[in-house]
Write a structure and sequence with these properties.
3 domains, 14 helices, five-stranded parallel β-sheet, single chain, about 350 residues, Rossmann fold, alpha/beta, about 45% helix
Length: about 350
């Protein structure tokens, strides 16, 4: 039967004969199909939209707490793992740059919609793997100077996100904080990884200025692998250092617990840049909250998934630095933390 005739056929009473005609079976079937189809169009579109699964890559040192913070940030924005978003992680604790590049290339092959990464060694690996997939820095250090972005306000390429970014003056602050602890050290050792971009003259210069103002001598020891740690602490003890600053870098971050244990064994207070240090048994940390940085990276991923271009998303710098003190470690070292320092602390670990 011609559908147009069905649509034109009388429905309900025919005026004049007083008899109600029920629509034919064909008419009822056709109308059900038409109306059902019309209703199905928006429902299908809505279902397709809500069931789209985004795939995001994470390239970083092994950092479960940080990735969890990233997942929490995504959850707050309406994403559910396994439902509308998947995370592919490639984590490397070794200083092997080629392994990081291969990990980044693997994420690109998986067609991830963005790669979340940091610090610099991992950003560099992602950068070498792709110039098209959006890269979200969690904590890039000097991204303009390194050539990752054109400027903080307008990155201009496929990289955006958050900077670490401790100005060199921060390293002078670490010396000042350690000298507030009694007994005041006459020598402070810096544990550095010479393979990282953080071990540079600008940072050492600022630390030297603060040390000179406080009457402190600086000593540096290099650690490239965990096997170097005991040798490094033997050198620190021979040099009669009274405290240790642990410089940043993915390898040293991975060794933070071992460093804390060796420092405690040798009765040395330690200063870290991140709260992971005192949480792992070190004495203090002062710097940005890395977990907040990972949560912040979720905001960038959300904007990119909604169509924003990395080139147009301004890079954020940290505005808050937190002092964290481990009182249990202080007691084990026989150190009394001045009340003035405790009052300034963001958190005191008992």
């Amino acid at each position: 039967m011609d559908p147009t005739r069905l649509l034109q056929a009388p429905y309900g009473p025919r005026f004049g004969d007083g008899v109600r005609q029920e629509p034919s079976m064909e008419r009822r079937t056709f109308m059900a199909v038409v109306s059902g189809g019309l209703l199905a169009v928006p429902l299908a579109a809505e279902a397709q939209e809500t069931t789209k699964v985004h795939r995001i890559g994470v390239l970083s040192p092994p950092s479960p707490a940080h990735v969890k913070a990233f997942e929490e940030g995504l959850s707050q924005l309406g994403y559910t793992l396994g439902s509308n978003i998947l995370i592919e992680q490639r984590a490397f604790g070794t200083p092997n740059m080629q392994a990081r590049i291969d990990g980044a290339a693997d994420l690109v092959r998986l067609n991830v919609e963005a790669i979340v990464t940091g610090p610099n060694q991992f950003i560099e690996a992602a950068r070498q793997a792709t110039t098209t997939v959006p890269i979200v820095m969690v904590y890039g250090n000097d991204p303009v100077g390194r050539g990752y972005i054109a400027s903080l306000a307008r990155p201009g390429g496929n990289i955006t996100g958050l900077t670490w970014d401790a100005a060199p003056e921060m390293y002078g602050k670490y010396v000042e904080l350690l000298t507030e602890i009694f007994p005041r050290p006459s020598r402070i050792a810096g544990v550095v990884d010479p393979t990282t971009s953080y071990d540079n003259e600008a940072y050492r210069k600022e630390a030297a200025i603060a040390a000179k103002n406080r009457g402190v001598t600086l000593q540096y020891v290099e650690v490239r692998a965990s096997s170097d740690l005991r040798k490094a602490f033997d050198a620190i003890v021979r040099g009669r250092a009274g405290a240790v600053v642990v410089y940043p870098g993915p390898a040293l971050w991975s060794y933070r617990g071992q460093i804390a244990a060796l420092a405690l064994q040798n009765r040395l207070p330690t200063m870290y840049l991140y709260r992971d240090g005192p949480e792992s048994g070190g004495l203090m940390s002062y710097g940005p909250n890395l977990r907040e940085s990972w949560r912040g990276a979720a905001r960038y991923v959300d904007k990119i998934l909604r169509g924003a271009k990395p080139a147009d998303l301004p890079v954020e710098q940290p505005t808050k630095f937190e002092l964290v003190i481990n009182l249990k470690t202080a007691k084990a070292l026989g150190i009394t933390i001045p009340q003035s320092l405790l009052l300034r602390a963001e958190e005191v670990l008992q």
